[in-house]
Amino acid sequence: MTGHKRTAVVTGGGSGIGLAIADRLAVDGHRVAVFDLDPSGFPDGYTVDVTDRDQVDHALTEVRWAFGPVTILVNSAGQEGYKRFTNLSFDTWNRVIDVNLNSVFHCVQAVLPDMIGEGWGRIINISSSSTHSGQPYMSHYVAAKSAVNGLTKSLALEYGPAGITVNAVPPGFIDTPMLRRSESRGLLGRTIGDHIQETPVRRAGRPEDIAATCSFLASEDAGYITGQIIGVNGGRST
Ligand code: NAP
């Protein structure tokens, strides 16, 4: 890592991609706090439902007190969903929008004052490669993640002058508990091995692949990269 020790918050950092990002930012020398429904996998974990603004604000107060202003935010909390659109209840639609999109609204809005105050910030939103061409039975999830990409671009324009970069990382096919749950419920259509055969680099992604990209985007060196949607997908952007 080049440069300063910062305070970072990683949502969804209790598992999978978020946990790998939190571990990597800690190795990079940052003070890292994880917000998750079950944060027990990480030393500085806070039990937070990121769809609840009061819980986000409360945990942020504790993080600021312990570590100082938050200048790196990675939004990785997410929830997938599989439902034929005609069978999709409005409650399920709303829940998936809440976890994948509204959580980003809450966390970004709550953390921005710290970044503006410091004149420096890095926001990284984990979206999904499904936003490139859509995904059957995942209309609610793809709608939410596509909105996250749009939000990313707009915030980049709005807060670039304040020294804050905002980027999205849409992962491809990453081997995590979320993916394994989907496979065991028969929701991937085919096996993970079939998907690997359709991936140019011929392997599933690892959480560490996403973490390495986030590490760079959070660094001083990435200061001229903003408003970008940076796919990490082994060459398969569907
Ligand atoms: P994961 O292992 O299920 O991790 C997601 C984490 O988010 C879990 O720890 C989960 O907590 C937490 N979470 C869910 N709802 C939350 C809430 N309301 N408040 C706080 N934490 C919450 O999934 P992953 O595969 O690492 O996914 C990480 C991100 O990458 C997600 O945004 C996902 O949509 C995206 N993504 C993943 C893939 C992939 O192939 N794996 C592909 C594209 C995009 P609990 O486990 O306690 O519920």
CATH class equals: Alpha Beta
Integer average pLDDT? 96
- Quickly give the structural class: alpha/beta
DSSP, total strands:
6
Organism: Actinocorallia longicatena
InterPro entries: KR_dom, NAD(P)-bd_dom_sf, Sc_DH/Rdtase_CS, SDR, SDR_fam
Protein name: SDR family NAD(P)-dependent oxidoreductase
Family: Belongs to the short-chain dehydrogenases/reductases (SDR) family.
Account of the 3D structure:
The chain has 238 residues and is an alpha/beta fold. It contains 8 helices and 6 strands; from the N terminus they run βαββαβαβααβααα. It has a single domain, classed as NAD(P)-binding Rossmann-like Domain (Rossmann fold, 3-Layer(aba) Sandwich). The chain has a 6-stranded parallel β-sheet with strand order 3-2-1-4-5-6, sandwiched between helices. Helix 3 links the parallel strand 4 and strand 5. Helix 2 packs parallel to helix 3. The longest helix has 29 residues. The chain is globular and about 45 Å long. The chain binds NADP nicotinamide-adenine-dinucleotide phosphate (NAP). The site of NADP nicotinamide-adenine-dinucleotide phosphate has 31 residues, from helix 1, strand 2 and helix 6.
